[in-house]
Amino acid sequence: MLKIIPMKVYFDNAATTPIRKEIIDSMTGLMIESYGNPSSTHSFGRKAKTVLEECRKEIASHFNISSKEIIFTSGGTESDNMILRSAIESFDIETIVTSEIEHHAVLNVVEYLSTKNIKIKYVEINNDGSIDINSLESILKSDNSKKLVSLMHVNNEIGNILDLKEVSKICKKNSCLFHTDAVQSVGRYKIDLNKTQIDFLSASAHKFHGPKGIGFSFIRNDSKLMPFIIGGGQEWGARAGTESIYNVLGMSMALSIANKNLESESKHIKNIKSHFVKKIKKIFPDVIFNGNSDGFDKNTYTIVNVALPIIPHKIDLLNFHLDLKGIACSKGSACQSGSSAGSHVINHLKKNNKWPSLRFSFSIFNSIEEVDYLVNILKSFVKEPVS
Fold first, then answer.
1. Among the three residues 231, 260, 289, which one is the final residue of a domain in this structure?
2. I want to staple 359 with a disulfide (CB 3.0 to 4.6 A). Which of 203, 217, 317, 330 is the partner?
3. Against a cut of 0.90, is the pTM above it?
4. Mean pLDDT of the chain
5. Which CATH number characterizes residue 266's domain?
6. Are 61 and 191 in contact (CB under 8 A)?
7. What angle do CA 235, 238, 239 make, to 5 degrees?
């Protein structure tokens, strides 16, 4: 019998990605060379401020927008909170339109806002987990209340892609503001915010090989939000607190590298996903790909979410066994890993959810050999022998 030598395989890149080495080196160098406060007027502060604004300009250039439309935050969760909660006060929003398969950084915020007399309406979800566009249009036309639509670009669990241009046109047609959580898509897809009329966007660096604890909100120039964090006048008064220039530099570098190498790196990852799907279908002919995540047409190339028909008595041991073999994957969002209720996204899909679902997410640092290693491990969980 062939003995499988344990490997370390990281297939949980939707939760977080490893930082590129060159980014770590640059951040470390900046920590040593530039430790001034960007708000200070002396030379140390001015040097830090220069780095901050150069990074802001660089990030904005990737979206074809003004640098003043980028507000630095601590990450996607703060960005979502900042936009949703501040919009209520700034624009007298009466209704938020979203879906029940959003990230909890949106879902828990709208649940909180519902206690503040804000009406929450949920668009219908199609069987494959995609947003029902007809349902969205119907809701937007249902009354004359001031509305904010919040729908994520790429679903973090099943990988479905929202058509941003189509949704933004529908929102503009109905005089509604549009926010998208683009945490899973920034750095993996190019988004021209000058051509796509999104009002607000959230992003987080650690999803595209940058550091944790840094992200940004895109706030269109004619959409002035009240500050979410109140204190000093940083970020043009939109978000108080001394900026972390080391993290900002890391985020700027990570986005620049990702976009520069987008074609070659996405091709590499697509090959890994294709190989994974082919191998899984052979082992588990009855496998269900949640959100049609075996494809690329309307699904991201970085995520595959599968419901596996495995031996019943081995179901509870699946994650534990994979972890022992050095394989990192996920049952759903890492942000809800302590929950025993299962994935709220999978629960909303009208498919067989009795089988255990696992999310495998890939990056440029993964390989075909790692997929083959995983496949050999999964063979021991098949109901019938695989030739």
1. 260
2. 330
3. yes
4. 92
5. 3.90.1150.10
6. no
7. 70
- Pick the catalytic residue from 55, 176, 329, 335: 335
Examine residue 181 and state whether it is found in any structural domain, yes or no: yes
329 noted as active-site residue: no
Domain that holds residue 305: 9-19+261-381
CB 238 within 8 A of CB 225: yes
Please write the tens of the pLDDT for every residue from 301-358. Answer: 999 999 998 876 677 788 888 999 999 999 755 555 444 457 899 988 866 567 889 9
**Are both 40 and 62 inside the same structural domain?**
yes
Residue type at position 254: A
Under the banding of pLDDT at 50, 70 and 90, the label for residue 375 is very high
DSSP labels, 272-294: HHHHHHHHHHHH-TT-EEGGGTT
Q: How far apart are CA 54 and CA 66, in angstroms?
A: 12
Pair 284, 305 in one domain: yes
Report yes or no: 286 and 382 within 8 Å, Cβ to Cβ: no
Do the domain assignments include residue 387? no
Write the CATH number for 73. Answer: 3.40.640.10
